[in-house]
Amino acid sequence: MKKFLFLTLALFFICSSAVILETEAVQAESELKVALVVSGGLGDRSFYDSAAEGVEWAEEDFGIDSRVLECRNDPSLFRDRLIQGSMYGDVVIVVGFEFYDVVQTVAPEFPEVEYIYVDNTIEDQANITSIVYKENEGSFLAGALAAMMTTKTEVPNITAEKIIGMVGGMDIPVIRNFQVGYQEGAKYVDSETKVETVFAGDFEDPAQGKESALTLFSQGADIVFAAAGKTGEGVFQAAGEKDNYVIGVDADQRYINPEVIIASVVKAVNVSVYESIERIIADELNSGSLYTYGLEEEGVYIGYGTEEMNQIVPAEIKEKVQVIKEQIISGEIEVPTAY
């Protein structure tokens, strides 16, 4: 009887210890605090929302605590928001090229904080890890797709003029990288394709995006690539009014208006943010380094929406885009860059 009681108690303590250890492990993960600091604002259904989605995934899977700090494109808030995030978080996800200078001054003030700088590169700072994307590869596919689509005159509202366009949010290197890929992809398919570009001058001005797109449509563009964040919503509106077509950016945006948005150049910001947090929790982040996401890493790709949506892009064009994608990954096609 004593032996049985001893074994029972021993088993109880072993199980209790296991529960305690498991609970401590969960608590250790849930104690991680992550601040997401964005130069613009959430609700763009594109770049910033994708970053926030990555943090939300990490909350669900790892039990982290998080906070979002928006700057709404007000430069006077950049430093304050970064400091607020640094005082709150063990990790600060910094989203926006505009933070390039300020994050380099704030990070040394908080050496114990890990900074993940999304969509730009900072070197030689031990606590700043950079994430960049080969957006030129994704937009090369978009340019090829648009050039093929603009010859499909059997598709409603496609003319025989072979003109496509692009609305860029701002004339900055990352948008130029989109532009280079888009133009070269179109020329790769058909050297006679004419590619027109307009820079709206803002990432959060749908009215300016609409005006820019209407200009391109009036010049004969059948399809316009909107690499412009929230400004792109104005491009979608213009396409809806003129019965033209658009390619979205950063997220698979077809759901917004599947009758005019034929595809999207998806930049997997959500995945890269999630994976960064996952690496930190697993103590596998190579702090201070650069992580690059291209076609091979599935960090950029073409999204066509869901199967339930009306697919405007014919299967034959999708297959050709897939072949070009494989040629880029293999190195057979070398995509130029703006950098």
Automatic annotation (TrEMBL):
Q: What is its main location?
A: membrane
What InterPro entries does the database record attribute to this sequence? BMP_lipoprotein (IPR050957), Peripla_BP_I (IPR028082), PnrA-like (IPR003760)
The entry's localization annotation reads: Cell membrane
Signal sequence, renumbered to the chain = 1-20
Coiled-coil segments, which residues? none
Q: Which residues form the ABC transporter substrate-binding protein PnrA-like domain?
A: 33-337
Recorded GO cellular component terms are: plasma membrane
Gene3D superfamilies cross-referenced by the UniProt entry: 3.40.50.2300
Topology with respect to the bilayer: Lipid-anchor
Q: Name one Pfam family in it.
A: Bmp
Q: Which UniProt keywords apply?
A: Cell membrane, Lipoprotein, Membrane, Signal
> Which family would the database say this protein is a member of?
Belongs to the BMP lipoprotein family.
Q: Which PANTHER family match?
A: ABC TRANSPORTER GUANOSINE-BINDING PROTEIN NUPN (PTHR34296:SF2), TRANSCRIPTIONAL ACTIVATOR PROTEIN MED (PTHR34296)
The protein's name is Basic membrane lipoprotein
